[in-house]
Every structure is written in structure tokens, then in C-alpha cells.
Amino acid sequence: MGKPVDRLLVNGFDFSRNDPSMALEALPAYIVKSVKAYEQRGELARVTGLDDGSREQVVNVVLRKKYMGTWTGQADLSGGTPDLYSARGYANTFTDRYRVSLFGNANNTNQELWYNGDGSISAFNVYRSGKNAFHSPGGTLFWRNKSDENAAGYLKIEATGDYNNNTRRNTRYTELETMLSGGSSYNATEEHPHSHETRVAGHLFVTWRPTATTYVFYQNNAWRSRTTSDNNGRGATWNANPFNAGYAPLDSVFAPNLLRAAMFGAVTRTRSVGQGENTLGHVDQLLRVNQKLNSQGANLTWQTDLTCEETASANFSLDGYHYFRPEANNLPHLLHRYRDNATGNTQLGSTLELQWPVGKHFVPGARYAFSHLHNRMDTDGFLLNRLSSAPTTFDAALPLLARLPEGIADWRRLARENEITRHTLQNTTSHSGTLFLRYTADQWFSSVNLTLKHESEIYDFEKGGFPAQHPHAPTNAALLLDPNRMEARLKASSLSTMISARVRLSSRSRSRCPISPIRGMCASATRI
Length: 528
Known about the structure:
- The chain is mainly beta.
- It is 6% helix and 60% strand.
- It contains six helices and 24 strands.
- Residues 116-120, 467-483 and 507-528 have low confidence and may be disordered.
């Protein structure tokens, strides 16, 4: 049986950080001189020179020299009626020192995909219902100053950037029967959602060897997106089946003759519109430094990673209700809502690890790890039609849908929905220390770990719409201030000890053709 490819190299140079098996399709067979497949230790194990049990399957594609520095690629173009188009493609050029890729996709045929420069297609390769348009150009650059990654002064830079612009339009119609003990209830809805999303993303990877014994790796992934949306719809409920009456149920309910609708068992009808805007910002970074301490394989490794993500959304909705039964006239006829939501998540982690080989097969070591999580979520809900100056009918409120009240200083207090409004804050910090012993011999790999971990957490929760009055109170239970407002602060800490063991048997057996990379070419297989 073949094994999945973890890493693809072209002339010993990284080609893809996405799906290597699909990336191979981007290389025409006529430019390929040979293909070699092999298994090697993981990246950190190769840097330290110490076997930590990790393995990856690698394919190295060697190109013919006459095609080095030339451009190769592929483009697919199509068109149709009415006004349909689809275009996607990529182009690559390689040398021993660099690779440049350009890629892009544009279509209004409902195919949502991100067409990468290495020929792979992202998991978003799906067909959406409705009328949608997707556009995603981008490019990648891989560069290194020398071929020997273990030489002093070695520097490799990998960068990718892409832009996505997507528009989605849809129409949904649903009919539903709900079976109840006293008879069935019938519901029909019609919606017309529309959204527009823009997204910019960038990725940077830097590998550097200041000296032959020092290794530095830096990674940065960042993206920002903005989505605007609007929706309008209508719906109705009945206590008698309207779907087999030979007419359009919703058209009948919204016809001027309300009596006709009531005759067929209509209970209520609803008109709704909505508008919203959502933004997302994300940055994650990783820095790893490894220093070899002696020629016997002693290593000191420090790694830190930081992830920050912020979201914000503002959404307006307007719902108008008409009741066909007089006994329901005391129910709300208009709901004009505004919801504001913001979240923030920050995760920081750092580890320091010392490995000191003893003899040929044993590697004892120690590791300290620190992590901190800061998680914030703020949700505010407002019912704008509570204000005394608010319109009382759907048609009068519609022009004010996405406008906040003016001239009312305390409108947030007056219109606040206590059941919706809540604010949470979570801070979790952990420290752990690990002593480990690894044993490696031929086909065997085993490890034993002893870990001592301390974790503390503080969780603040406030519901009801006002700033917490006791943000630092060391209480461990909820403090009930009134039926619509609640504050709580929870503190927790734990100390745990864990012992774990792992044993792995590595096989040297070779399949006849472990990986079939390019149009039937069989790869030679080795193990490193």
C-alpha cells in the first residue's frame, strides 16, 4: 500500500505547504527528470539530530535542466448564457534558488474554490445554490540563498498572498408541517439573502541558520475579512393545510383581501428584513530557536507562539406581524432589533526544552511549558421599538432599519434586551514541567514522560446590560442583583501529575511503488 505524501520538493526545494498529492498535477511530465520518494524524520528531529519518533513521507521531483527558469502552467476558460463565465489557472517557474507562482480563479457559476499556485484546490471546492460569483487571485514566492540547509548563513523565505472577493445571492422557499397533539400547524417562508465578502490573506515563513549550530524558524499567518449582508423575506402560519388548495399560499396571505386568507385557516403572517456587517482579523506567529550545545547531540530548543483573533458584528433586523385572530392582538406587531457582538481571543504559549544524549540509544531531557489564554465575548441586544419616539408600523420603521437612534442620550439603557446582553471574560494560565527519557534503536522507538502541571482559571460573567460592579470580587458564586441582571466570578486551580509511555516499531519494508506521483511514474523509495 502506498503512503500519503506529507511534503513535496522540487530539486530538493519545498514546493507546497498545501496538498502535495494534488500539487504534483501542476508539473507536466515532460519537464520531470526523475522522482524519488522516501521517509525522513520530522523537521525538529532533523534540526536537533535526535530522533523524536516523528516521520514524514517526502517526494523529491528533479527537473530537467533545460526547463529550469521557464514558465509552465495551465488555464481553463469557459463561458455560457446568460452571461456565465469561468476562468482559473496557475503558472510556475523554478530554479535551484527560487520558485514563483501566480494563480487565480473567477467565475459566476456558483463554484466556490481557492485555486492555489501549486495546482491544489482548497476544501471550499463546492457548488453553492443560488447566483454567486467568486474571484480569488494570488501569488507565492519561495527563495533561498544556498542549497545546503545545514550550512551557516542559510536563509530561506516563503511568502504567499491572496485576495478573495465573493458575492452570494439566493432565494429559499420552504414549506413545513408540524404535527401537534391537537392537530398540525403549517408554515411557509420565502427568503432572499444576499452577501458580499472580501478577504485578504498573507503567509510568511523564514528559515535561517546564523551559524552551523543555530537554527531559527519564524512563521506568520494573517488575514482579514469583511462581510456585508442583507435579507428580506416573508412567511405565514396556518392551522389548516394550505398547500393543496390550488393556489400560492403566501401570495394569498399577502393579498389585499385579508378575509380570504383568514378563510383558509391563516393564523399569522410575517414580513422581515435584515442588514449586517461582520469583520474578522486573525494573526498567528511562531518563533523557534534551536542551539546545538556539543558534538554529542545536546540541544536547547525554545519555541513561542502567539495567536490573536478579533471579530465584530453589527446586525439589524425588522419583523412585522399581522394576526388573523382577534385574541392575538395583544402580541407584538413590530420587532426592530439591533445586535452588537465583539469577541477577542489571544493565546500565548512558550516551551523550553533541553535534550542531552547519554550513550548511543538514550536521550534524557526536560521541558518547561507555559500557556495563557485570554478569551472575551461581548454581546449587546437592543429592541429599538421600545423607545417612545420609535415608529409603530413596519412601513414607517423600514427607512430607519440600519440607523441608530439620535437625540436620545440613554437609548441603550431604555432599549436593552437583558436576555440577549451578556459579557464574558476568561483567563486561563498553565505551567508544566516534564522529565522524559527516549530510547531509539534500529526499528524501535519508545519514550517515558513524567509531567507536573498547574493550571488556574478566572471566569467573569455578567448578564443584563450594565458594567460589572464587582469585577475583582473574589466570590465563587453568582451574585443575583435583580431578576434581569446577574454577575459572577469563578476561580479555579488544579495541580495534576501524569505519567505516559509510548512505544513505536518502525518498519523498513518497501512497497513496490509506494507513491505514484506523476502520470504513472513510479518513484524510487528510500528511508532516512
